[in-house]
Each structure stands twice: as C-alpha cells, then as structure tokens.
Amino acid sequence: MTRSSQLKAKDVENQQKLDESAEAAERLLNKRSMGVSKRELYMRKIQDLGSLPSAELKAHADDSIKTLMKKLDGVNKKLKKYSHVNKKAFDQYVNFSDQREDLISRKEELDSGAEKVKELIESLDKKKDEAISRTFRGVSAHFRDVWNELVPDGSGELVMRTALDELEEDEEDNKSLEVSLFRGVSIRVRFSNVGEQVSE
After folding, report:
1. Are residues 45 and 102 located together in one domain of the fold?
2. pTM above 0.70, yes or no
3. Are 41 and 111 found together in one domain?
4. Domain range spanning residue 17?
C-alpha cells in the first residue's frame, strides 16, 4: 500500500468520523431545542396554575415522577365526578350580582324621582286650588253686586260645592274621593228681605 493510498484511506476514515460527529451534534442540538421547548411549555403550565404553595411543593418534593403521575391520575378521576357542574356558575353569579346592584340603584333613583314628582303634583294642586278659590271669590263678589243692582231688596250669592259637601251627603255609602276638591257652584238668591231663599 502506497503512502497516497494510506492517506486516502485515512482521509475517508476521518471524513466518516466527521460526518458521524456532525450527525451526533445535530441530534444533540435537536434534543436541546426539544428540551428548551418542553421547559417553556412546563413554565407556561406552572404560570397557568398560579402561585404554588411552598408547603405543598415540599410535601411532594421527594416523590418520584411515577408516584406523582399516579396521584395526578387519582385527582383527575375525582375531578370527573364534578364534570356536570357548571364551570361558569361563579362568573354568572358575579354578573347577575352586578346586574342586581345596578337594578337596585336604578330603582332607588326612580323611587326618588317618583317622590319628587308627587311633591310637584301636590304643590301644583295646592296652587290650582288657591287660584280657583281666589277667582271664585272675585266672581262671587261681582255676582252679589250685579244681583243687588237687579233686585235691590233681595240678596244673592254664589256657593262653591266641594268634595267635603259630597262626603257629608254620601257618608252612608262610604265613597272615597280621589279627584279635585271642587265639585261645582250653587246659587242662593232672595227676591226680598223676607222672601224665601232659592238655591239652585
């Protein structure tokens, strides 16, 4: 075997070793990237679990993965008993509680508004009754003056009929009065000082 053939054989052998090393390095790189992706996956899962109580971690720190997997399987089987439970119930409860609070607040606002409207109606009714009384007194005074001019020896007056008059008349029926205080006008006249009074 010549020196050049020896070198070629050595070169082929070295090339094979180099290829094997490159393949091994590639396998290690793949294994490393898979390990990194697994670590990231487990880190995400741990974050999803939230803060883990250190006492629980210490209690299971010495358990093997096989033991932990058995415990996890047992817990998952117990959880299946509750699979029919509405998982959104708490969210719905919170949502409905918020809606209830909003409705209670709106009811209070409406009640307050209704009370103010009642007060306004009472105030307007009072002003209306005062205006009617004032106007009636003026009209009654003019009627008396006109009657005295028409019938000098007589007397005449206008009388306002109110709900209180009707209440006295209908006391036996116990009728409740829910409308305006004023019911109408009556006329009382005399054609002479000694004559009989006529009411209409």
Report:
1. no
2. no
3. no
4. 8-50
Please name the residue that has the structure tokens 């992706």. 37
Pairing of strands 182-190, 198-199: antiparallel
Exposed / middle / buried, residue 156 (Cβ in 10 Å: 0-12, 13-18, 19+)? buried
Within-domain flag for 168: yes
Asked, for residue 83, whether it belongs to a domain, the answer is no
According to DSSP, the residues that pair with 188 across neighbouring strands are 157, 199
**Domain annotation covers residue 189:** yes
> Is residue 66 one of the residues assigned to a domain?
no
Residue 156: name the closest of 116, 199, 121, 125 by CA.
199
Residue-wise burial string across 119-130, b where 16 or more C-beta atoms lie within 10 A, e elsewhere: eeeeeeeeeeee
Do 194 and 127 fall within a single domain?
Answer: yes
Q: Following CA atoms 111, 115, 117, 120 in sequence, which dihedral angle do they give, to the nearest 10 degrees?
A: -170
Same-domain check for residues 174 and 110: yes
Residues 43 and 101 in one domain: no
Q: What is the pLDDT along the chain (200 residues), one digit of tens a residue?
A: 688 888 888 888 999 999 999 999 999 999 999 999 999 998 888 787 766 677 777 777 788 888 888 888 988 888 888 777 777 888 889 999 999 999 999 999 999 999 999 999 999 989 988 898 899 899 999 999 998 888 888 888 888 888 776 666 555 454 444 446 777 888 888 887 776 666 65
Number of domains observed in the structure of the chain: 2
* DSSP conformation class of 173: G
